[in-house]
Design goal:
Number of strands: 7
Low-confidence stretches: none
Helix content: 40-55%
Number of helices: 8
Mean pLDDT: 91
Structural class: alpha/beta
CATH architecture: 3-Layer(aba) Sandwich
Number of domains: 1
Length: about 230
């Protein structure tokens, strides 16, 4: 089995496995700050009632639900994990019939279908980032925006050391106790560390056709918001 297929199957298995505890763990492990991160990303992206949103790697729908509360009504979700999508359906009646089980690298949508794309803590799970971002560009309308919310390693040495201790030691232990799946919460710190060291999101987005990319840092540099414009 080739490396990309191995990653795809691993990600699908992990998120199907932890789906029933995913929301609780997200809020618990972030001390609830994840609500603020999503709200800030939506504000910075300038979405409104006229937006047509595709939420990629939507999981159980927290980003979509936050966007809906902010006034966005035309929302679609996409995720590889069918268990996540089923939970999204239960949480939000209005999303039923508007979710697709798919990967970012092969989006089953027509060209220029959406004004906005969001992806929260999901780009690390793509098996081909450039191909995924090219798909973003294809399905966005002119003047559309792709908004990425993702972890990063803080530059401040003290905060970075605390972050690494929490991510590499505390988080896997709590994740295992609550979700019964240790791999899921060792995968998270592994993927964040590797991603931050090797991936330049701004460069990849520009390679994909986006002509303007803005980057914001939140919560002592723990999280980044990247907004790419199709102009």
């Amino acid at each position: 089995m080739e490396e990309t297929q191995i990653k795809k199957e691993r990600v699908k298995r992990i998120f199907d496995s932890i789906s029933y505890r995913y929301d609780f763990l997200n809020h618990f492990l972030s001390l609830g700050v994840d609500f603020y991160w999503r709200k800030k990303a939506i504000q910075l992206s300038g979405m409104n009632s006229n937006s047509i949103l595709l939420d990629i790697a939507c999981g159980t729908g927290d980003f979509s639900i936050a966007a809906n509360k902010a006034g966005v009504k035309n929302i679609f979700g996409a995720d590889l994990s069918i268990n996540m999508l089923r939970l999204f359906d239960k949480k939000a009646e209005w999303i039923k019939g508007r979710t697709s089980q798919c990967v970012a690298e092969f989006l089953p949508f027509r060209n220029e279908s959406f004004t906005n794309i969001t992806v929260a803590f999901g780009v690390r799970n793509f098996y081909d980032l450039l191909k995924g971002f090219q798909q973003f560009y294809r399905v966005l309308t002119n003047n559309g925006k792709a908004t990425i919310l993702e972890f990063r390693l803080p530059s401040n040495k003290l905060i970075r050391n605390f972050y690494l201790l929490y991510f590499n030691k505390v988080l896997p232990l709590i994740g295992k106790l609550i979700s019964k799946d240790r791999e899921a919460y060792t995968y998270l710190p592994e993927s964040v560390n590797e991603f931050d060291e090797k991936i330049d999101l701004v460069d990849l987005l520009k390679q994909s056709g986006f002509s303007k990319v803005e980057k914001y840092s939140l919560t002592f540099g723990l999280v980044q918001i990247v907004i790419a414009y199709k102009l």
